[in-house]
Amino acid sequence: MRKQPPKQSVKEAAVGYLSRRDHAEKELRQKLKNRGYESAEIDEAVAFCQDYNWLDDARFAGQMLRNGLAKGWGLLRIRQELKLKGVHEVVVRQLLDEDETDWFEHARAVARRKFGETQADTPKEQAKRVRFMQYRGFDFEQIKYAFGVDEEY
């Protein structure tokens, strides 16, 4: 059974998606493709949205960076999320080069918010805290700095 053609024009669908929230170009293309639009139509709609500056990967990446920081994510997690959304590596690199976030201080703030000022009293608790910070996207140097530890894990 063949899928019914969508009732809405591809441009209307694209603008509808973008009116709810910003999208990366790849993400928008995938959503339109999943709704049954043809590639040529999708290309035209994407170009239309870019002409009006409704679709902008650099703006989307900046928004993802701010949201990630607010959620307590580290650089590695934010970079991974941007990659999953289909933001080109050049755009990500430019964004992070211009960013002035002190990732070490951010890691310390996230650790304090989650664990307070108390030190881990057992190796098991210490490992749990390190895993939490790794999941959030911080590297080992940032994690060591966050917990004020000089020793190796």
From TrEMBL:
The molecule here is called: Regulatory protein RecX
Top-level lineage group: Bacteria
Where does it localize?
Cytoplasm
Q: Which UniProt keywords apply?
A: Cytoplasm
Stretches assigned to the RecX second three-helical domain:
56-95
The UniProt entry, under PANTHER family, shows: REGULATORY PROTEIN RECX FAMILY PROTEIN
A biological-process GO annotation: regulation of DNA repair
The protein's job, in short, is: Modulates RecA activity.
- Residue ranges of the RecX third three-helical domain? 100-146
- GO CC annotation, single: cytoplasm
Limits of the RecX first three-helical domain: 11-49
Q: Does the keyword Cytoplasm apply?
A: yes
Family to which this protein belongs: Belongs to the RecX family.
